[in-house]
Structure formats: C-alpha cells, structure tokens
Amino acid sequence: MRRTLRQLAAVKPSRYLESGAPTGLTGLFTHPSPRSSLIFLYSSTLDKLSQFPESSLYRQSTEALTKHRLSIISASVPEGHAEWSEKTKKIVAEHPEVFNTPEGGIPHEAEKYVKVTKSGRSFVVSKQEKFVDDTRTEWDSEEDTVGFSNGGVTEADEAVGQAPVNPMRPGSDEKTVVLDPEPQLTADQIVDVENKIGAGLIEEVIQVAEGELKLADVLLQAQVWEDLEEKPLEGQWSYFSRDTGTGTTQTPPQK
C-alpha cells in the first residue's frame, strides 16, 4: 500500500527514484542514498552492541535482526558499484592527509571527510556546514552587517554539498579531493529490498535504524545490564505474575 502511495506521488515514474521527491507519506521524502545509509547505521549499531555482554537478551535479539537486514541491503548491489568502490579506495589510499587524520581533512577542507570504521567496515563520512535559513531564525533586533563573501556558503552550494573556497583563507592553494557519489539502487531494487525487509518504505526502515542506534547508545551509556543499585524487596513485583497452579491471580500486596 505504501509503495503504491510512492508511485502515486511521483509525477513521472522512472528507473531511479528522485531524491527529495514525495513518498506519499506526510513529511517523508525520498532518501538520496538509502543503501549506504542503512549499511552505515546497521554497522554502527552492531559496533555498539558488541560492547554489551553476550548474555544480554537485548543484544541477542537486536543483533540478529540487524544482521538479517544488513545482509539484505548489502546483497542488493547497484550497477557500477564495483568500479566506483575500486576508484574510491584508490583515492583514499592516495590522499592519507585527507582521510587518515582525526580532523578528517586538509586545512581548507577541515572536517569535510572523516574516515571511520564500524563493525569491521570502513566508511568515508562527508560533513557539510549547516545552512542557516534566515526566514526561520528569530531576529535578535541587531543589524546584520555580515554578508556573503567569496567564501560564503549559499543555498545552491549546500544543495550539492560543495562550499566554495575562500581565496583569502590560508591553505586555499591546497588540492581538493572530491569523491564521486555512490551509484544508486534502481526503483525495482529498492522495492525488492522493501519486500524482503517487510517494514514499509526504505525511508521508514532508515528511521527505525536511526532510532535503534540511538537506543543502543543510551542503553550502553546507562549499562542497563548491571544490577540495580537498590535491590527490589522480596515479592515486590510478584503480583504481575499469574498463579497457574490454582487458576487464580495473585493480588497486589496491601499497603
């Protein structure tokens, strides 16, 4: 049903889904790179789960589901992915000053690229400067005298993820490394992945994966597998269980 809504929302059906196009669900738009996003999210979740005790039921159940979905999305490979992967690996190896530093970039491209490893997989994460929409920002009654210069970030530049380099900034004569975008899955491949996962549109699956990663991080920081600091009183929660031997239900203890 939801895939039908996506098709109805599309003006012109094509081989590839258009990034940012309506999906048919309110507030949910077509994701630009669902495959790489899901692989990164699932690998990050597995990396978090590996820090839980093996006896943790949460780890066991979530790990099994995450690995299952990761295998589905990994098995769906877009056309030309092998060539793109080899080219990207070559660029990363040739420019260690860009990808192998903690900051993740040469001086004028600081934090544009960050190389990270999650669950045995290597990823190159692209960080972009956040564009500030003045129409949605509350005015502080002070005159804004700072305008865009040659090194400013415009909305058009933000859309393509490439900010112009300020010629007055130190190090601007350095070389700039640009990675080609990963080849995208076709609309048919995405539908096949959605059918195999069985959890709605792939954009919904991404939202669930993002939420699971956040939950795993919260539970890890709280170390929920440890014993309670204050032990429960004997029989404190016994009234939640049913006495199957006598066929009667235990009543809560009276205060």
From TrEMBL:
<dbReference type="Pfam" id="PF04716">
    <property type="entry name" value="ETC_C1_NDUFA5"/>
</dbReference>
<keyword id="KW-0496">Mitochondrion</keyword>
<feature type="compositionally biased region" description="Low complexity">
    <location>
        <begin position="244"/>
        <end position="255"/>
    </location>
</feature>
<protein>
    <submittedName>
        <fullName>NADH-ubiquinone oxidoreductase</fullName>
    </submittedName>
</protein>
<keyword id="KW-0999">Mitochondrion inner membrane</keyword>
<keyword id="KW-0472">Membrane</keyword>
<dbReference type="GO" id="GO:0005743">
    <property type="term" value="C:mitochondrial inner membrane"/>
</dbReference>
<feature type="region of interest" description="Disordered">
    <location>
        <begin position="236"/>
        <end position="255"/>
    </location>
</feature>
<dbReference type="GO" id="GO:0022904">
    <property type="term" value="P:respiratory electron transport chain"/>
</dbReference>
<dbReference type="InterPro" id="IPR006806">
    <property type="entry name" value="NDUFA5"/>
</dbReference>
<keyword id="KW-0813">Transport</keyword>
<keyword id="KW-0249">Electron transport</keyword>
<keyword id="KW-0679">Respiratory chain</keyword>
<comment type="similarity">
    <text>Belongs to the complex I NDUFA5 subunit family.</text>
</comment>
